[in-house]
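Researcher: Last one for today. Full complex below.
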Amino acid sequence: MTVELTEAEQLRHDLMAEKHAQAKSLLREQDIDCWLTFSREGSDCLLPYVMGGEYLVGTAALMLFAEGPSVAVVADYDVGQVDGIFDHVLPYSLDWREPFHDTLRECNPATIGINHSIANEGVDGITHGMYLKLLDALEPLGYANRLVSSEAVSGRVRAIKSTGEIELIRRACEITQRIFDDLTGMLRPGLTEAQIAEIIRERMQTYEVGPSWEASYCPTVSSSRSRRGHTPPGAVALEPGDGLAVDFGVIREGYASDLMWSWYFRKPGETAPPAEMAHAFEAVRDGIDLAASILKPGIRGVEVDSPARALLQERGYVFTHGLGHQVGRTAHDGGMMLGPNNARYGDRSSGIVEAGMVFTLEPVVTWVGLEDNVLVTDTGCEFLNTPQREIIMI
Amino acid sequence: MTVELTEAEQLRHDLMAEKHAQAKSLLREQDIDCWLTFSREGSDCLLPYVMGGEYLVGTAALMLFAEGPSVAVVADYDVGQVDGIFDHVLPYSLDWREPFHDTLRECNPATIGINHSIANEGVDGITHGMYLKLLDALEPLGYANRLVSSEAVSGRVRAIKSTGEIELIRRACEITQRIFDDLTGMLRPGLTEAQIAEIIRERMQTYEVGPSWEASYCPTVSSSRSRRGHTPPGAVALEPGDGLAVDFGVIREGYASDLMWSWYFRKPGETAPPAEMAHAFEAVRDGIDLAASILKPGIRGVEVDSPARALLQERGYVFTHGLGHQVGRTAHDGGMMLGPNNARYGDRSSGIVEAGMVFTLEPVVTWVGLEDNVLVTDTGCEFLNTPQREIIMI
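Model: Here's the assembly. Have a good evening.
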């Protein structure tokens, strides 16, 4: 009998069909015969891209091939997690090696890509113990020397979003902005940073979404005043004359947003923020616009970061962090980024932008925060959220 | 000025003081000079035991020494996570290698334990990419050949609970039982498995706790009837004559419980469950009692599993899974377990029980589920929850 899939399960199956097709095409392009994700008890950050979930309990070998059907060797109690996602599911009750050996012998891949990388933590999934366990298992086959890094495939599977994934990030941005809009209606002088964070948390519950990074600092609520005094986090109450920036994102149906907006609490009679704040905000906004006008496939990360950084410097501001990171299943999705060419970011900033990547643009200066999420298209980029154009007055 | 710690922060600091003292003593005992946890973007499952949190963004080298002060090399933006936890915090803004090299040169450890293990996923924390990155960084010092597995230390730091940790697991058990009690009051014929799961989820919100494993199947609600028919998960409505088992645990203040209780929905006039159910329940309960009477320091996991398995077999039941796993920050805490000596569990079941370990005892047969959490003491073991003695009648 056919069991009907729930909506969430159907979504997972559809996404995985997209990602497996993408992986197969990349395997051929990169001349890697097999992509192996080797996991136990949820180890390996690539699991969501290969099976659409974060956890398999037993030792699992998930294999996608350049040619031929995909194969999942999983413990019998894990079958439900991969059923319908892989062409062949080979359950074991005691010994995973047997079906694993049989599969490899039959397919005889000349190269087996496994998930490790020095530079890109986003595809550095296999633990060192699992690597040693794999070597030990490959030894009787004489295949240990066939191992290569999967990075050229797995890095792109992670970074280059499919149609379904883009739609989900767009929806995460939508909810985030709705929460910002709700917040705007609720802001009033006297609220502390901690109370503002609490309002946002309550909204997340209402919309049934989770925070897109560590809950204890998502949202990050900071007032223009909290930088000046030594106060415990969250204690500053917003007063007329204060600015407010909220850095916040949500996870919805497995995909993240990462946005920042800025507000100003007007003093009696004021119709605009103080010139100094407006100036900082405009610098940030213009920096984002400039970066967005440059961002396109084929350009290096540093080539997007540098002009934006120079523009802000001309306006009198310095920001020390990178201009933007990737967004996907997590707010900080690893791999190449839009950053300066220094010891902290250099390796990652020299990478090449590709169509289908999603980046933040976030040149934060003084207290003023503005952060947008953009999708790289074939010819340039597209905002996935509606960019804030001026400081919101409260 | 001194910033007062929040209650949660104070708890974290106290726990880490306990764990660092334990680690130091184990380092001396095991003759390992330095225990290095090498992480980035939350990689390494040992982070919670070393710094009391799950996430450091930048590349971090957290070092505990058999002799001398502890040192954390972390990115400047991560300092807040380790401040007050380590004796020396060395922040870097660009290059982590410099303070890392300085520390190692000064301490000159003959052996450096890093987190990897083939058998124990609970201490298999370093990714293969990070291992390669570490080798590369140690090369100029000529220290690469000083690396050993930290398992003898890290495995015990994870498995052997401190006073504070035991208290937290006990509290997680308490809340779980309170939720079971609440559920007992709300159960009535006609509720589906999915609706029962929903009641439990609502209770978790009320008590502000999270599920102790993957939310989609924590709780696992199964009726005696759902095994018989091909129905979508959760669809079976409980009717008079049905049994119900709920496998469920919570995370509270970072520590988990993992319990199971059983209920029976009486038919008109019934005062006890059918003989067959009662018989299964008694077998399970007696199996747990037998295991608890045997469990003590020095015994091997398989020596606890075997007699319980034999008792159940005498009563006519077979269970294929292990008798019990460890519990700690996660419901399935890795390492040695109470299991049979077979290809699936053998390595882990041959390990030795030590005082301070916490195990589940869960010999589930047919639909009947019962699962308790026990702490190994110096002379035997102690239940951390109040064990269920008979099937609860609804």
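The CA atoms of residues 361 and 372 of chain B lie 5 Å apart. The mean pLDDT of chain B is 93.
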